[in-house]
Amino acid sequence: PPYHRDALVAPLWRWLKHIEAGHPRGERNAHNSYVAGFLGITTASARQPDGEGQAILPHYWFGHSRKSMPDIDVDFTPGPNGREKVMRDFTEFFGEDHVAQIATFNTLLAKSAIKDVARAKGLPAAEADALTLLVPKKFQATKDDSGEEVGGVSLRKMIESEHPAVVEGSREMRAAMARDSKVDEIIRLAAEIEGLKRNVSTHACGVLVTPEPVTNYVAVEKTDRGTGRQAVHDGPTLTDRLGLLKVDFLGLKNLAVNEACVERIRERTGQAVNWRTLPDEDPDAFKLLREGKTHGIFQFASDFATGILKQIKPRKVSDLFAATALGRPGPMDQIPKYIEARAAGKIDYGDPVYAKYAAPILDSTYGVLTYQEQLMRLYLALAVPEQATLTMADGLRKACAKKKIEDLLKFRDFFIEGAVAKGIDRTFIEGIWLAIESFGLYAFNVSHATAYGILAMRQASLKAHWPAAFLAALMTVDQHETAKERGAASPLTKAVLEARKLNLEMLPVDVNRSTERIEIEEPATAGGKTGLRMSLVAIKGVGERPVEAIIAERTANGPYADLRDLITRTVEVEREKDPETGRTIPAAVNKTAVVNLAKVGAFDTFGDRGAIVALAEAYFGTTSAKKRAALEWA
After folding, report:
1. In what order do the strands lie in the sheet with 73-76?
2. Are 383 and 414 a contacting pair, CB within 8 Å?
């Protein structure tokens, strides 16, 4: 096309930095691109890599050998004043006729196809679910950050391919098909419908921008979301086949936490902190991460990621890059090897000839293939000369990025035969290739890991130096979130446990002290703990409208004396009428709000909780003014 992504993105980036709305995250190689650095798209390109294996490849970003345009994603604070506003401004910036969101087609994946066929064949739901367990997890397609389905091995390949890795991975499925003809029939039928389009929706973050009106290239339809228009093709069709450019805008709650945290710091201390300029090397932050106090830290909040950090014991920011990358499915199995070599301070490559080629590339990650760039360089170093090109290396990288194991296998013979010709033992290098196939299950490039690690570092610094402000911000952002899995703790519950680790005191909800957010309260006595006061909004069933009314009345006319005072001032108030319907608008504060607040102790300063709950239920349990007047309020 007669325009280029960086030329397009650069003015937008400068504008984003001016309004401090975005945090650039290089999805492909943005943080590793000199051109992106020169244009001001990212500042991380000036970062010195840890060894040759993590350095930028010449021409990788723009070279003629590259077949597709590189990606640059941008993370924004979610909500109407963050991502949504930027989307509107982006449309205005480039012109409404030149911008459209992208359609995404949800397809029948392997497990869904099996379920649908099993249902059509009359199998009970439990048996259908059991059949889906035959699909190996490492062969399943998944969704990337933008919601696109990526990678995986097709059912047809699982049951027909003779490749050793596929045969081994699908051994249980093939055995079940051989034992039971009905299972065989269902899986073969599922293989026929796998990949069919199931429904169409709007891409979670992809926005198409074109030099001429979008309709000169593709059909569009009107939508009631985002830009108001949607291209009726999926991303790969638009970018890979038609050569159009896509920009991804993602909402990231961690950015909202950071912004809220620095605002709390300013309110409490008067100090103006710019989280984007916090140092990369912060000993206090590293100590916090080594101790496993990672709740709320980008990419490291899970138990699994926390465990990696506690074993790696990070002492420099590049350790976070590695920890982020090692947590992906590709290199995940090599974590013990990485930790063992790191602790021992020496690397055993297993073959002296292989070591000569691999050491300059893999020494920085203790002999473990961790980043896509390392795979590209290893391929360039060992493949047969006529196939050791940047085009081929980039194809290998793309197969890993999209988790396309089938595509990955195309490079096997070029790699193995080239290595054998250089004097490496065939059996040994075949073992290395098996590790590469596992790596192809999904791995990060250096820039992706760098951007993630930098953001994690910034958050760790905020948490280490201003723990109360960080947790108050985090809990406020998370207060409406529920547990992701049955039986798991909610983010708010996890934050309460984390507060105790950080020597902060959790204070109960109080109708006269709590607000719509988690508030920081100074110690009541010298040497006491800083407190975090639970918000009114965090209470299930209360809602924002009742909270706004309670706080507004309290701000205007002072604290509530007792339950009767609260009801008189917020429930028994003159109600306005809807100008359109003429109907009386219900009071903002209702039974559900009052009773639920009473049950969690928001009125404990008024007296016994049980008595107050009973009184609240009695009041709202009758519409008789006479009976209400007869209630014992004292």
Report:
1. 22-25, 73-76, 245-251, 197-209, 99-107, 229-231, 220-222
2. yes
The secondary structure of residue 489, as a DSSP letter, is P
Q: Residue 579, Cα to own-chain centre: how many angstroms?
A: 44
**Which pTM value belongs to this model?**
0.82
Cα-Cα-Cα-Cα torsion 45, 49, 53, 56, nearest 10 degrees, comes to 20
Q: Residues 6 or more apart from 95 whose CB is under 8 A from it?
A: none
Question: In whole angstroms, what is the distance from residue 173 CA to residue 159 CA?
Answer: 8
End-to-end CA distance of the chain: 77
pLDDT tens-digit map of 568-593 = 899 887 777 777 787 877 788 889 99
Helix (H, G, I), strand (E, B) or coil at 292: coil
Q: Which are the contacts of 433, defined by CB distance < 8 A and separation ≥ 6?
A: 412, 415, 416
Q: Which phi and psi (to 5°) does residue 607 adopt?
A: 150, -160
Angle at Cα 411 formed by Cα 409 and Cα 414, nearest 5°? 135
Ordered DSSP codes for 57-95: PTTTTT-TT--SPPP-EEEE--STTTHHHHHHHHHHHH-
pLDDT band at 99 (very low <50, low <70, confident <90, very high): confident
The encoded tokens of residue 613 equal: 């709950």
Q: Are β-strands 245-251 and 73-76 bridged in parallel, bridged antiparallel, or unpaired?
A: parallel
- The helix-helix angle for 544-557 and 591-599 (nearest 10°) equals 80
Q: Which DSSP string do the residues of 329-381 spell out, in sequence order?
A: TTTGGGHHHHHHHHHHT----SSHHHHHHHHHHHGGGTT---BHHHHHHHHHH
**CB contact at 8 A, 168 and 405:** no
CA atoms of 125 and 133, how far apart (whole Å) = 13
CA angle, corner 429, sides to 420 and 441, nearest 5?
135
Element (H, E) at 204: strand 197-209
pLDDT at 41: 59
Closest CA to 221 of 104, 105, 102, 106: 102
DSSP, res 585: P
Run of H or E residues at 269: helix 253-269
Residue 185 corresponds to which tokens in the numbers above?
Answer: 């029939």
Cα separation of 541 and 563, whole Å?
19
Separation in Å, CA 308 to CA 51, 166, 329: 22, 29, 14
Closest CA to 397 of 45, 68, 163: 68
